[in-house]
Amino acid sequence: MKQITLNRKKPVISVPLLLSAYFGMLAFLPVSVFAAPVFAADPINGQKIYLMHCAGCHGQNGISDMPQAPNLARYEIFTKADQALIDTIRSGRNMMPAFLGILNDHEIRDVISYVRTLH
Ligand code: HEC
Asked: For the domain that residue 67 is a member of, what is the CATH number?
């Protein structure tokens, strides 16, 4: 009696190949997930935050509606260091409310990057 043998082909994608592809992608994952949020301030998001939290006093275009609030569209703001602006926004000053706990550091950087476009 003749024995019937199945001519099985080897699978094209092997397990070791799949594993190396998987771990290969893992190696790139941290770059794609963390690069953008950590390094780039986003003025588009900053504009949304500005219109929601700041425009009421500092005006839609940085020309203040409230007499005590300085125009953010003036040159001096543009030349102030980020850290000075961050501190003011975080802690507030006189009539300016503190945004600590309302905006996180990333959102504060976004809103500053937007304010820097107003001059
Ligand atoms: C309730 C009104 C009000 C709101 C809301 C407000 N501010 Fe102010 N802001 C002020 C006033 C008033 C001052 C001036 C404070 C002082 O020095 O007496 C000020 C000061 C500042 C300064 C400092 C300017 C300088 O010359 O150093 C910055 C920057 C600023 N605000 C940004 C913002 C941003 C960004 C937001 C939104 C996240 C915001 N403010 C929301 C009223 C406001």
From this structure: 1.10.760.10
